[in-house]
Structures are given as C-alpha cells and as structure tokens.
Design goal:
With 372 residues, this protein is mainly alpha-helical. It has 16 helices and two strands. Strands 1-2 form a two-stranded antiparallel sheet. Helix 6 runs parallel beside helix 8, helix 7 packs antiparallel against helix 8 and helix 11 packs antiparallel against helix 12. The protein is globular and about 60 Å long. The two termini are 28 Å apart.
C-alpha cells in the first residue's frame, strides 16, 4: 500500500508515471522509463493519455456530433433538436443538458468577449431569445448559470449568490416550460446546495423529482452532495440517504451503487490506515456497486459513472483484476468522478490505470488472461 500513497502524492504534484511502473509478482514498484519490466497499458489496447476524452464518462456519439456542429457553426438548432428527441425522464437528457451547458460555459471562459469579439457560448443566448419557451433551451440555460456560479465565483460571495439566484429563477422558468420534466428540479438541487436551502426547502424540491423520476441516478447523486458533511448534512445523513436509495432500487437499477458514492464523499483527506480500503464499510459498498453494474442494462447512461468510481476504489483496495475488468468497459472517456476533481482528469485516470495494469501483471495477469 505504501507505493500507492506515494503515487497518489505524485499525481497531486502533476507527475506522469505511466512509463515507470513495473510489475513483479506480488509487488508494484518503479523502474526507469524504457525498462523491460515497465507495465504498458497500450498492451491492453487502452487509449493514450492524450487521446482520453474528458468531456463525458462514456460514449454518446450523437451528443459529440451535435456538439461539434454547434461549436463549429454557433447554431443552436442541432442541440435543440437533439434534446427535443431525448426522453425527459431519462438519465441521458440530464447528461446532455449538462454537456451543452458545460460547453457554453467553457466557451465563455475561453472567449469572454470584448469590443470587437463575440463572447463564447453566443449560440445559447440566441437559443433562449429565439425560442424562449423551448424546454431544452430553458434547462440548458439554468444549468449554464449554475456552472458559471461554481466556476467563476467563490461560494458564499455576493457574486456567487447573485448568479445562483438568477439560476433559481431560470429553474422555475424551465419547470414551467416542461411540467413533467425532472431536469429543472435536478438543476435546482445544485442551487439548493449553493444557496443553503433549509432541509425542508430541499425536501420540497426532492419530492418533485421523485414524483417525476423516482429512480433517477443522476438526481440521487446531485442530492447526495447536499446531504454530505461538507455541505448541509452529515456523514450519517449522507449514508442514510444513499442506503435508503439502494434499498428501494428496482431490479437493474444502479441506485444500489449509491453507498459507494457516499463513502467517496466522506473519505478522509489523509488516510494512513493501510486496510481502510479493505474495511467492511468500503468492501460492502464496493460489493453493492459491483452487483449494480452486473445487473444494469448495458446501455444505461449512468453505468460508466459507476464503473469509473469502482476503478478508483478497486485500485486502492488492490483488487487489480476487478479494476481491469471495469477499465476495459470505460477506457477512452474520463469525464466522471473522481477524475474530474483533478486539474488534469486524463493524467489522474492514467495513473490509476497504470497501477491497475502493474498490479494485475504482478499477480500473474496478462493481456491474454483478461476477458473482454
């Protein structure tokens, strides 16, 4: 375990360790670049670090194609059509709303505009002005404001509160545009966290989501943040929320993985206990997430989110073969927790992937023994 913590510390310093990981039976260590014992993720067909897509957790080619058109032409209509054809109650609509909002926010950060320059994300402004009653545009605008608040202002500051209040109003407009759509209320969960809704106020928003999409995994993950110790709840409240969701999860639902996300949200900043990731609490949460993954539909849009979180925990628990079995399903995309918390998600993911490869080979694994 000691080398694992050394590597994690190096990640935080921005080091790239892929070329120097080696595999030796029973151990994972460091060797100079080019050493014959260096573990090479490319041997498993994994993507190069620079090829990893940080925009989303898994493939959504329709979304990628539309994002390309919108950003290249600055014409919102392809995005409007895609969202209009995406079922309101499903996970995919929420993910696509987040993606469009994130694209507009990043464009604005890159091109804030000026006297002679059009600001980035102009296509979203045009979308809202030309189709003010369009439910998709209203939801994207609300989520855009939420992302702007978290991206550009310090929580608790006047600027942050002003943007969040604007986002709250936008959520209300979006909800009026599509009464049966849970997405505006899911967006408001982040507003509730930012503005510090009382627990009673939060529950009122949450009940509206449960009325529309009671098994929505994305909504549960958004709500979990509110109940965490670092925001407006406690460790116990977060665990209770996650375990209740898992207990009522219908067959095939990924809600059974919620306790693993609750554990992640309450990891100690510094943990020197070597057996922590083999502890009963963590092992039970991993078991629930693995069961959820095995039971879920292969096309469940939230499946990649759970697999990415499992990779994090399985590597830290030194369960190398199980980590490799998750990697083969998601490699190539890293736009998910826990990697997105890093300034360089691709580098963070790549180190954990290299650790999985090195540990797998140190215990007799090889590309030939890995099932696909």
């Amino acid at each position: 375990m000691e080398i694992l913590w050394v590597l994690i510390a190096l990640v935080m310093l921005g080091a790239v360790l892929l070329p120097v990981l080696r595999r030796r039976r029973g151990a994972v260590g460091l060797v100079p670049p080019g050493h014959p014992d260096a573990a090479d993720p490319a041997n498993y067909g994994f993507a190069l670090q620079e090829e990893l897509d940080i925009r989303m957790p898994g493939p959504d080619q329709d979304l990628l194609d539309v994002l390309d058109v919108v950003q290249r032409t600055q014409d919102h209509r392809a995005a409007q059509q895609l969202l209009a054809g995406t079922p309101a109650e499903g996970e995919q609509r929420w993910q696509r709303v987040q993606a469009f909002a994130g694209a507009a926010s990043l464009e604005l950060a890159q091109r804030p505009g000026g006297v002679s320059e059009t600001p980035g994300g102009q296509w979203l402004r045009v979308w809202r002005s030309e189709a003010p009653k369009d439910a998709g545009g209203a939801a994207v605008h609300a989520e855009f404001l939420v992302q702007q608040a978290w991206r550009t202002a310090a929580p608790g500051s006047d600027e942050f509160r002003i943007i969040m209040e604007e986002a709250k109003a936008a959520c209300g407009e979006a909800a009026l545009s599509a009464p049966g759509d849970p997405v505006p209320y899911i967006v408001e969960l982040s507003v509730a966290r930012g503005l510090g809704y009382s627990q009673q106020e939060f529950e009122q928003v949450w009940l509206k989501i449960l009325d529309r999409a009671p098994a929505h995994m994305g909504a549960h993950l958004a709500a979990l943040h509110y109940w965490c110790e670092k925001w407006h709840g406690s460790r116990q409240q977060a665990y209770d929320f996650a375990e209740a969701a898992a207990a009522r999860a219908p067959q095939g639902s990924l809600l059974a993985a919620m306790p693993l996300f609750a554990v992640f949200e309450h990891l100690p900043e510094v943990n020197l206990v070597s057996g922590f990731y083999q502890s009963e609490v963590v092992s039970r949460a991993i078991h629930g997430a693995l069961h959820a993954v095995h039971s879920a539909r292969p096309d469940d849009p939230m499946l990649a989110h759970v697999r990415h979180m499992l990779i994090f925990f399985l590597v830290r628990a030194e369960r190398w073969a199980e980590a490799m079995n998750q990697l083969i399903h998601v490699d190539g995309h890293v736009g998910a927790l826990p990697w997105t918390l890093s300034p360089d998600p691709a580098a963070e993911f790549a180190v954990y992937r290299a650790l999985a490869v090195a540990g797998y080979e140190a215990n007799g694994g090889s590309p030939a023994t890995l099932p696909h």
